Amino acid sequence: MKLFTGLIFCSLVLGASGLLSFLGEAARGTWDMIRAYHDMREANYIGADKYFHARGNYDAAQRGPGGAWAAKVISDGRENFQRFTDRLKFGDSGHGAADSRADQAANEWGRSGKDPNHFRPAGLPDKY
């Protein structure tokens, strides 16, 4: 009976540490996404949108499964919200379904571990 109780206790502790690890990765991945968005706004560089999408997702996914999960949730939420507001015309983003699909392709590219510099436009300052 003591062995069974010990095994249950150990599995709960290990499960909790895994959950804490996942949540830490998700928090750091969220910060990576926020940093990429901030850098995109600061750079204000025409044609760099896809690069920042890929970079934010890449950086977040490098954190581990929690970071990849956070990047997917944030990316999907952003694109879905943009499409929703475009349909209601609350602030037409000026980007249609094709641009949303291209953003999602850049998001997936970065999350899959591929180099975000594939989308880097010529002339973007090295700071980014």
From TrEMBL:
Keyword Signal on entry: yes
Region (Disordered): 91-128
GO cellular component: high-density lipoprotein particle
Signal sequence segment: 1-18
GO biological process, one term: acute-phase response
Top-rank lineage group of the source organism: Eukaryota
Residue spans of biased composition, Basic and acidic residues class: 91-102
SMART domains (UniProt xref): SAA (SM00197)
Keywords: Acute phase, HDL, Signal
Primary role: Major acute phase reactant. Apolipoprotein of the HDL complex.
Family: Belongs to the SAA family.
Name of the protein described by the UniProt record: Serum amyloid A protein
Organism, as annotated: Equus asinus (Donkey)
